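Technical appendix A lists one of the benchmark inputs used to test multi-chain prediction within the project. The record comprises two sequence entries:
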Amino acid sequence: MIGSIISSGVISPAWDNFFAVILGMGFGFALEASGFSSSRKIIGTFFGYDFVVVKVFFTAAIVASLGLLYFSYLGLLDFSTLYIQPTFLTSAIVGGIIMGIGFAMGGFCPGTSLCATAVGRLDGLVFFGGMFIGVFLFSEAFPLFESIYNSGSEGAKMVNTVFGISPELFTFFLVLAAIGMFAGAGWVQKRVKKVEY
Amino acid sequence: MKKIKNDGTYYLNPYLGGVILGTFLFLAFYISGRGLGASGAVKNSVAAGVNVIAPEHVAKSAYYSQFAGGDKQPMSNWLVFEVLGVLAGAFLSGIIFNRLKMKVEHSPKITSRRRLIFALAGGLIFGFGSQLGRGCTSGAALSGMAVLSFGGYITMIAIFGTAFLAAWIFRKNWI
């Protein structure tokens, strides 16, 4: 079957929401089982006492990228049917900076706050509740931010084109960079005072 | 799997966790043609809620009207179903790894109250930023990186780069 399967019409689109639940379950399971329901474990990355976020995040990005590239190479996947996050440079940077501040204050990102909520962490539930207020405020104030939201549009730009290399070569370098980061993380963690949590 | 002494719970090896996460992310693209997300479900819920209370307001808003109003069904949405799955999957993991427990997790140096205030403020700010950035760490950064989106990489660098600096400002809450 050539992916994406739903767009190929082999399976009725009505099944898409069923798959959404199953895929979400795998996502939630992997996050929680890796320790992402604990804000102090997540935040360890920023102080050097626990690099689980870096290890899980980059391993996942590489596995998914490699899987998609291999399936595309083998003719099992039509890359043009995939949703590629469009690039709006200004809002990606400004939005990312705002998210980074919220991350350091709250200790979660949206997905991990859900996992924390699912295992009874009230700080996760409160973070998740806070998101509703933040989303509401942005939506109401949208006219104020509309110009930032829409500026710097570059369409579905691929990161490898920025460096003028193929997607495969970019991913190869990404793997090398990740291995370097994992080694560096281990080196730092050994030298940082352990934090009990 | 290594045992954590404090409370007797277990975590997966982070690389194994990453492979499982990456496999489901790959499957999301292979099956549904899209990545995994989290903040999008909040966006749809807010739009749906506002649409119940003030449908004219939604119809006039350039933002809400993209997701709710008219014949749009913001709660019957892929991301909403996916997020319900996230809750179920995390709950299942909590059972398996013996982590189900009601508590406020915080550094012994701060009170629960302070932790909750910062969690609320952090959630609010993150929620706001996730709308400006068209998605959060999952939907924009991780899923974007999987399909080599330039914007996904930029979002990832902006989030983690800022968090590294900001964590130092808020370090008294953590270490």
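Chain B touches chain A through 125 residues (CB under 8 Å). Residues 112-132 of chain B form the longest helix (21 residues). Comparable benchmark entries are summarised in Table A2.
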